[in-house]
Amino acid sequence: MSWLLLAVVGVPLLGALLAALLRERAGTLAALAASVLALAAAVPLAWQRGTPALEGRGIAPWHEVDLAWVPALDLRLHLGVDGISYPLVLLTALLTVLCCGYTLWRAPEPGRPQRLAALLLVIEAGILATFLALDLVLFFIAFEVVLLPMAAVIGVWGGPGRRRAALKFALYTLAGSVLLLVGVVAVVVLAGTGDLTLLTTDPVLSRTAQLWIFGLFGLAFAVKSPLWPLHTWLPDAHTQAPTVGSVVLAGVLLKMGTYGLIRVGLGVTPQGAETFGPLLGGLAVAAIIIGSLVCLVQTELKRLIAYSSVGHMGFVLLGIATGTAAGVQAALIGNIAHGVLTGLLFFLAGAVKDRAHTDSLADLGGLRERQPRLAGVLGFAALGSLGLPGLAGFWGEACAVVAALSRGGPLWTALGVLAAVGGALTAAYLLRLLRRVSHGPAAVTLFAVEPAPGTGAAVRRRPAPGRSGATAATPGRPDALRPELVAWAPLVLLAVLIGVAPALIVDLAGAAVTALTTGMGTP
Amino acid sequence: VIDASIVALCLAAGTALAVLVIDLIVPRWWAPWAVALLGGAATLVAVLVTPARQAGVLCAGLPDDAAGRSTPVDCSYVFDSTARWGAGLLVGLTVLVLLLAQPTLRAGAAPAGESCFLLICSMTGGVALAGAGDLITLIVALEPLTLPLYILAALHRRRSGQAAQAGVTFFVNSVVATAITLLGAALLYLGSGSVHLRGAMSGRWTATEPRWQPLLLAGAGLVLVGLAFKVAAVPLHAWAPTTYDGAPLPVAAYLSTASKLGGVLAIVTVVRAVGLSSPGPAAGPLLHTTGLVLAVLAAASMVVGTLVALRQLRMVRLLAWSSIAQAGFLLAPLGGLAVLPTVAPAPIAGLVDAALAYTAFFVVLEITAFAAIVALRPAAGDGGTLDELAGTGRAAPWRAIGLGIALVGLAGLPPALAGLFAKITILGALVRVDAWLLAGVVAVMSVVGLAVYWRPLARLLRAGPAGPVAAGPAPIAVLPAAALGLACVLAVLLSVAPELLFSTV
Hints:
B: two-stranded antiparallel ribbon; 2 strands; 2% strand
């Protein structure tokens, strides 16, 4: 089974190479095939897993592979999967399949979809390696791999302000990852090993060292997550990125920050995490409140969803900040839920923008009448995102609040209450979004007759076979097309599935999280 | 009988002579060029097959009581593992530069015989420098490494004005630096009575009486400052942008790689003499002075080089300023000497090895960058502006990928892992000795560095000019393209298996 771990990372890289070398459609198809293969390799990782028997802290990977690479730098090709990483690995592989398929169907300007797909695969490989790495130096390298391809996706296929947004994204994330590098090097030098399993089982670092190093890690992961006030790269990057770029960015790239905080922050420097917990929690709650307030006055669709990410990730970070098993569990569910729902929301925002050629909420409206299916899915995603019980978004946010409250003490109680208030604000802005876009007066942008839908901002690769009869009969932009529905369906299903049975994730990660948080979070 | 350790040196010098002679007999551009290329390759092979050893040639004898023989100590030329490593790298870079120079020579933009002779002379100086065992050999070897470059920088028929300016700027700065180095060497000799850098007797440096100590400290500082000129470290960097931009591109490539490597080898030789010789009362102060001088040079180079590179509009000038910044990065681990609590061999060796490893990663990436520019530009042309790069990603994808690998590597980012490994190496070395301040400067400047390399990278991806097609990239010249391919293969190899490098340093 261990070779599957190598395949999960290697197949996307080979696929990227192949896709870059082939011609447009063939290359994109090859990329799609590679992403499907990677997903097929990722799913069986959960089979034949031994019951992890953990005494105290530590990581008990279900499967692992450990090869020497660069002994001089303490760098080993050490990959492993456990309950904390497995759901994220699946989410990454799934979203990449959807994005590659979407690229095959509709390539953003300026074309060359095979290059875009190749970059998506490189990003996938980097993210998967980050989630699977059990060597600290390897973790860092994988963390860095994502940077330039993502910047290229934004900078080449993005909107009008793409160059600035790409540079801002690159500089912000690089600043974060350089801090991470200093922290990683410090851990490797002080502890004499980069093996995350050893470092987690027995944190040998002194308390002072842990405080400093967690400070570095915390800043680095806070930039990536992003945590207020280090989030300002996110709205620009999201607004400018092409649809698939936004989906990957929101869906899984941000999770690298929170995953790093759990795996490396809590794992290697537990005392640092505990000491900085209240600060982290305070900033997380600030992110929830401020993100929601900013969303209330946003005038652009993609920007609104981007800011909502800041708020949602605030809940995830609040869960991690508590340092309790319940909190970390909440964070894991929140991660997945946010990945599914925000990924879906960005797909929908892209679809709306393709039709209306505008992002401005003031120019949108009447989606419900003209494009009922699109409006229906948008409504579903918005309700899921605002935390409606029964859908995925609910569990992460509710559990984070519960974890904060159960931590006890005036500070955590206050943080829990404030986060709950923020949750209410979330409902307010998402309902405002629905009122404007779905239920508002029919806007001319979605109504106007256009002979060839999709020209201009997007290039249609083939005539849409799935155009529904209703829209063909009435003038205006088409409703959701079949390829779009195919791309959205898995996310919709997942949102319902996780909403109904959050135990799927909780049971997978339970043992690992309990082990990780041993000895922490005791008031 | 010639000692095995100087075979490579003799081959290099012989090649220079052969080039000079063949130019008289066969007055074609290719004759001296081919001889130089063959001689360079032969020297490379000789360097690689010669075993490294601690004993050298031209030694002072230390009488051995037992058998009546004498043990060689304090040798003037020692072909040890660092010398072998440095000489091999330097000769390899020279061969690549010769490949890059082919279009220039063929177009007659520079006289072939003179150019090849001077380049091989410089290479000979480099091979001698790599094994220098005393201050006199060091300075004598430094001269043939540098002197031919004044002329080479100025040898360009079509752009004689700029090229002459480049040569004169380089010459004036270099003379001052050499004078400083000489003064420092003289002070070291005055203070210690020894010019030897390696071996048992160099312990005299640190065993000096306290009243001579200020002379030693001043001497060590001056020698290092003079040598910092060779690596173009701030504040001795001002020559680099003008010279690189004015000189023919292959010469600029040589200046920023092989010549810089020579400077690093010289500095490392001095640092080892200071740090790894036997302990004495002056050992601690000497080590800290050395470390402090290097730390200041490193920090200033990183900051000034990176910040000024941000504003450059011409490609070669951008690379020149970035190579000033890179000089700071490669000196940074040596700056860590300043914070060592005691004179202990293990941490000093670690810092020196880190500096050497970074240098190797850097020269491979830098030669890749220059090779890509030579391949992209018309024969014997200059480096051009950044804007002229626009559209190359589409018009010349393979060469653009080569340039991309180099630039991403210099920025220290994946997927060109070589640069990232280099950054991890120096940060690791600095953190290991608790030099947090310098590590912080390295970290911050790495971030700003991305903004430097971002501009040419972004232009590679950008759409080209809509106007005349003639503005596009030059047609591919075979040999520069081969050099680019070779350099790219090396860079990729170092990204996949950097252990190849770490195990040889």
